[in-house]
Write a structure and sequence with these properties.
Elements: E1 12-13, E2 18-19, E3 24-25, E4 30-31, E5 36-37, E6 42-43, E7 48-49, E8 54-55, E9 59-61, E10 66-67, E11 72-75, E12 88-91, E13 96-97, E14 102-104, E15 112-115, E16 120-121, E17 126-127, E18 132-133, E19 138-139, E20 144-145, E21 150-151, E22 156-157, E23 162-163, E24 168-169, E25 174-175, E26 180-181, E27 189-192, E28 197-201, H1 203-208, H2 213-228, H3 233-243, H4 248-258
Parallel strand pairs: 1-4, 2-5, 3-6, 4-7, 5-8, 6-9, 7-10, 8-11, 9-12, 10-13, 11-14, 12-15, 13-16, 14-17, 15-18, 16-19, 17-20, 18-21, 19-22, 20-23, 21-24, 22-25, 23-26, 25-27
Antiparallel strand pairs: 27-28
Helix pairs in contact: 2-3
Length: about 260
């Protein structure tokens, strides 16, 4: 059944799909067999929904997104405190969500779960309630975010990474496959090991994104002071502020460290 905003003639909805009369559909939408689009759902133009996908109430999907088969988007949180409050799941534009992904909506704490634009979420990923994911992020297969996790722009998680609730991962960071994140990961770095540890800056990622050699060296110097000078956190911050020029990157690093609630890896 299809009502809501009447799509253009290029929209293709399989006869077995169930689409709420309250759903708002853009142009050139494709919805595969046995998928369910619930009340209060918005699908942007040129969006592809595979078969057996469920998109729950309160979900907004941007233009040019692809959601592959058997994914569950915007379902209620796996949180015993959830009381049925009206919350949202927001997906940006040009985002790809592969098979068997689960993304839970927010709770009263934040009100929504947010996924940015140009994001690639590979198969079997889970994103918990109230999480915030930036733009240009890549989650490899079976990555898992607990509730209230914040992942900044251009972050990459290897396969099977587990991120504890309330952790934050800074922009351009890379977490190696199979590791567990239980404290905050600052921006621009590569982290590996159990327990998770600093393994250098994310050199390849930064090069690909146009960070010049001088900027990369400056980032490396900041982290050499923080992780390898042998002083405590407050003394390391003082040394960084004293011995490094004030740049956008150093300011971002220091702000992240100073505002960490769970502590730095």
């Amino acid at each position: 059944m299809l009502t809501g905003r009447e799509p253009d003639i290029s929209t293709n909805i399989h006869s077995t799909a169930i689409v709420s009369s309250d759903a708002q559909l853009g142009e050139n939408i494709k919805i595969g067999p046995y998928s369910i689009i619930n009340n209060d759902v918005e699908l942007g133009d040129n969006t592809f929904i595979g078969n057996h996908v469920t998109i729950a109430e309160g979900t907004s999907v941007g233009n040019n997104c692809r959601i592959f088969h058997s994914s569950s988007i915007g379902e209620i949180p796996q949180d015993l405190k959830f009381g049925g409050e009206k919350t949202q799941t927001i997906i940006g534009e040009n985002t790809t969500i592969r098979e068997y992904v689960t993304i839970n909506k927010g709770t009263v704490a934040h009100g929504k779960t947010e996924i940015g634009s140009n994001v690639l979420i590979m198969a079997y990923v889970h994103i918990g309630h109230d999480s915030i994911v930036g733009d240009n992020v890549i989650f490899a297969n079976q990555s898992t975010l607990g509730g209230h996790v914040e992942v900044d722009d251009w972050v990459s998680l290897g396969g099977g990474v587990l991120v504890h609730q309330f952790c934050k991962i800074g922009a351009h960071a890379f977490v190696g496959a199979g590791y567990k994140v239980v404290q905050d990961v600052p921006p621009y770095i590569l982290v590996v090991g159990t327990p998770l540890r600093f393994a250098g800056i994310n050199k390849i990622g930064l090069e690909r994104r146009g960070f010049c050699s001088e900027t990369r060296q400056q980032i490396k110097k900041v982290y050499r002071t923080y992780f390898r000078s042998g002083v405590n956190r407050s003394e390391a911050i003082k040394l960084i502020e004293k011995n490094n020029p004030e740049t956008e990157e150093s300011n971002k690093i220091l702000s992240f460290i100073k505002n960490s609630n769970r502590g730095i890896i």
